[in-house]
Amino acid sequence: xxxxxxxxxxxxxxxxxxxxxxxxxxxxxxxxxxxxxxxxxxxxxxxxxxxxxxxxxxxxxxxxxxxxxxxxxxxxxxxxxxxxxxxxxxxxxxxxxxxxxxxxxxxxxxxxxxxxxxxxxxxxxxxxxxxxxxxxxxxxxxxxxxxxxxxxxxxxxxxxxxxxxxxxxxxxxxxxxxxxxxxxxxxxxxxxxxxxxxxxxxxxxxxxxxxxxxx
Length: 215
Ligand SMILES: CC(C)(COP(=O)(O)OP(=O)(O)OC[C@H]1O[C@@H](n2cnc3c(N)ncnc32)[C@H](O)[C@@H]1OP(=O)(O)O)[C@@H](O)C(=O)NCCC(=O)NCCS
Fold this sequence. Notes:
Blueprint: H1 5-11, E1 14-18, E2 25-33, E3 38-46, H2 55-69, E4 74-76, H3 84-92, H4 127-131, H5 134-138, E5 142-145, E6 148-151, H6 154-162, E7 166-169, E8 172-176, E9 186-190, H7 193-209
The structure holds coenzyme A (COA).
């Protein structure tokens, strides 16, 4: 959160909670509008002295009220499965668990993987095949997109395809979003995990070499 705070403040969707008397800062959370008219919540933090007193509930209600006015239809966020306090606060606020995901990271500075010599050949992605994929059904129809998750329906996939963030090769398909700051996010949609991961690393390396991002 600290590392991304300046960028978040700049984007202007940070909610801060102060006490009525004394103006002490006791809570914060962040909201990002997503292209499918959903809103992504993040960075929920309650001052340790104020936890368990409903601050997170209050922030969820305020965000819902604020976003409803701008046509946002659903609010989503992810919680680490080990974060019991956050899970309980979310359930109490009316959120429902819709999918479980695994997050893996590769540090491009440290990874020593085989270099690919051939140029990447982008192949057309059959959207109906993506929608029938095992990955999607295991994710209850959701796909990772950048820092958020969206429903993997035809129009959302088309949007991602138009943005040239949907990649296809050898029966594999994945999303690789344009890197923000020093990290990029990906999600495998069809095909083998190993070949997809290697291809994702290869493309990311190329982006890194051309100055798209550092990490
Ligand atoms: C998660 C967090 C934001 C919750 O904030 P909060 O202001 O304490 O939440 P609320 O007071 O609105 O909590 C409501 C419910 O959450 C649950 N909860 C809150 N703190 C809890 C704790 N320490 N252990 C277990 N459950 C807890 C309770 O069910 C509580 O309701 P109840 O006491 O009536 O049963 C806060 O614990 C926090 O800042 N954690 C560290 C950062 C973090 O994990 N952020 C979330 C990232 S997704």
